[in-house]
Structure formats: structure tokens, C-alpha cells
Write a structure and sequence with these properties.
The complex is a heterodimer of chains A (111) and B (114). Chain A is mainly β. Chain A is 0% helix and 57% strand. In chain A, strands 2, 4, 5, 9, 10 and 11 form a six-stranded mixed β-sheet that branches. In chain A, a hairpin with a 6-residue loop joins strand 9 and strand 10. Chain A is globular and about 40 Å long. Chain B has 114 residues and is mainly β. Chain B is globular and about 35 Å long. Chain B starts with a strand and ends with a strand. Classes of the chains: A mainly beta (111), B mainly beta (114). The interface between A and B is medium-sized, with 23 and 29 residues.
């Protein structure tokens, strides 16, 4: 079983819609959860991080963690064409520095 | 806004040659990392570096690879005797602490081995 799984997409939505992204992970040792946005041939850009179950909101972004189900989500409200990118979830154990990435979900926001 | 900068943005090298990729982490950060992403694949951890020594490394990071902080600002990844399968985007990253929850990435160095 893979450590982190993400649907590769593409996920196509009309401008203004809510984008819903998710990841599942296999090991309860993972305690920190991050979402990155990556444009083509660019570096991952940190969007959100959280370490507890529940919701965390930052502007148009909401990160949700359910540790009991090993399931994390990212919601993007009022999506814009500039949100078109690949979204990567990344998780980390309590000890150590290594981030384990999902394969990314490609999102297309159509005007 | 502070950022991680990497050079070169793209390098083409012949198989068997040595390559050095350079990074300037964010100035007040203490932890430094290298990741790589082969085209179409996941971002993979290579190594983390703290207090002038490797704190963690992956199975990928074998004797072919080395890292160094030659001065107070630069952080380098050296790849010896490059192979075709080393072709990838290499990302440098840094974080202020070892908790790793705010790791910031550079734009990457695209390495093509021919």
C-alpha cells in the first residue's frame, strides 16, 4: 500500500466553483499535513499546513484533516483560472524532517 | 517575500560528468533539503541538512551524491558520475525549524543527462 495516495485528475471545474481535493495516507505515524501548489516546471508553493484533526482556513483555502480515517482534504472557494495547477499533499512524521508527497492532482479552472 | 533561490535553472550534462547544483536558502532558516522530481513522477526526498551535517537521507541518496554548505549562504548538491536516470528537477528547500511544517521550496534546477 502506498504511503500517500492522490487522484491524479485532471479535475476540471468552471470559474467560481469550489475545488475539492483529497489525499489518503496509510500510516498513523504521520502527524503533519501540508498542501502545496505546483505550476508546470516550477517549485512547490506552500499553501497550508496543519497538524491536528479538524479544519483550518486561510483566505479561499480550507484544509481538513481526519486522522481517524487517515484522510486529508483541501477546498478552494471561488476558484479562478489562476488556480489551475497541480496540487500536492505532503505528510510528515512527528520525528524527522522528510516530507512524503502524493502524486498530485491536476486542476483546471475554466473561465 | 524571502525565497529560496537555485542555480542553474537548467543544466545539460554528459553521462559520467559531475554536476553541482547551488541553492541559497532563506536567510534565517536552519534546515536545508534537497528533493527531486523525475518528469511525471512524485516529488521525492533526498536529504536534509542541519548544523553542517546530514540529519536524514533517503535510499536514493547514495555515494553518488553529496551536500555541502561551503559558506554562510550557499547549500550545494553534488552529483558524481551522472547517469541518464539522474535526469530530473532538483528542488532545494529550507525551513526555520526542524518541525518541518513550513518547508519552502525553490523553483528548481532542471538537470538533463545525455
Amino acid at each position: 500500500q502506498k504511503e500517500v495516495e492522490q487522484d491524479p485528475g485532471p479535475l476540471s471545474v468552471p470559474e467560481g466553483a469550489i475545488v475539492s481535493l483529497n489525499c489518503t495516507y496509510s500510516n498513523s505515524a504521520f502527524q503533519y499535513f501540508m498542501w502545496y501548489r505546483q505550476y508546470s516546471r516550477k517549485g512547490p508553493e506552500l499553501l497550508m499546513y496543519t497538524y491536528s484533526s479538524g479544519n483550518k482556513e486561510d483566505g479561499r483555502f480550507t484544509a481538513q484533516v481526519d486522522k481517524s480515517s487517515k484522510y486529508i482534504s483541501l477546498f478552494i472557494r471561488d476558484s479562478q483560472p489562476s488556480d489551475s495547477a497541480t496540487y500536492l499533499c505532503a505528510i510528515k512524521r512527528a520525528a524527522g524532517n522528510k516530507l512524503t508527497f502524493g502524486g498530485g492532482t491536476r486542476v483546471l479552472v475554466k473561465p | 517575500e524571502p525565497e529560496v533561490t537555485q542555480t542553474p535553472s537548467h543544466q545539460v550534462t554528459q553521462m559520467g560528468q559531475e554536476v553541482i547544483l547551488r541553492c541559497v536558502p532563506i536567510s534565517n532558516h536552519l534546515y536545508f533539503y534537497w528533493y527531486r522530481q523525475i518528469l511525471g513522477q512524485k516529488v521525492e526526498f533526498l536529504v536534509s541538512f542541519y548544523n553542517n551535517e546530514i540529519s536524514e537521507k533517503s535510499e536514493i541518496f547514495d555515494d553518488q551524491f553529496s551536500v555541502e554548505r561551503p559558506d554562510g549562504s550557499n547549500f550545494t548538491l553534488k552529483i558524481r558520475s551522472t547517469k541518464l536516470e539522474d535526469s530530473a528537477m532538483y528542488f532545494c528547500a529550507s525551513s526555520p525549524t526542524g518541525s518541518g511544517n513550513t518547508i519552502y521550496f525553490g523553483e528548481g534546477s532542471w538537470l538533463t543527462v545525455v
